[in-house]
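BUG: 3D viewer hangs when loading the predicted structure for this chain

Environment: internal workstation, default settings.
Expected: structure renders.
Actual: progress bar stalls at 90%.

Input used:
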Amino acid sequence: MTATTTSGALGRLFHHRWAVPALATLHDLGGGAKLVTLVNKAGATRDSMRRTLTALIDLNLVRRNPGYGHPMRPEYLLTPKGKRVAPACAALWRTLQALGLEQVAFKKWALPALGTLGRSGERFGRIGEALGPVTPRALAQALRELERAGMIERRLRDGTPPFAEYHVTRSGKKLAAQVTTLEGAALSSVG
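Structure tokens produced before the viewer hung:
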């Protein structure tokens, strides 16, 4: 498992902000739900959730219910692959809600960057290499947000030239471990 494959699976999963909350809600509701339920539980707009569900269908994590039509039947169902990823999403979503970090964490590159840092302290360039298609600006914003939230810290090191390393804080370790668990599930299902 290379860092780039790992980040690729996570990048596809986190590309849509509402993917993890949608998968978590589907898991918590027994594998199926209506669009309105997913919208209300996540706090998303209908259009955003529809785009997210379309992406999750493309990733083969969710499918439309072919027997939908009865008012009590769910509109969207987890696929077998989705059932492998959804428990890790539910655990991560609950932790993020408990910490009040939903806004920070669901920016596209924040959790993939935290997962990369969870394995070891790294310099900016190496984090970018591990994440693949991230732009330097997007990575800098994600790291700044994680630092403000207290999940990582930036340490300046002496050298020629001086450089900075990023490390997961004590409070960020639990979240980083959950991202690693999600990575494993995403690699087997999304990657």
